Amino acid sequence: MTLDPIAPSRRRRRVLLSSTASVIAVPMLAIMLLLGVPAVVAVLASAVLGLVTTALIGRRAQGAVLTVTGARPLGEDESPRLAGLVEGLCLSSGVETPSLHVIDSPTPNALIARQGEERPSLVVTTGLLDGLGRVEMEGAVAHLLARLKRREVRVATAATLLAAGPVHARDRDGRLASLLAALLVPLAGSAERLRRVVCPEAAVMHADVDGVALTRYPPGLISALERIAETPTAPLRGARSTAQLWLVEPTTGPDRSTSDTHPPIDERIALLREL
Question: Which domains are delineated in the chain?
Answer without folding.
Answer: 62-158+197-273 (3.30.2010.10)
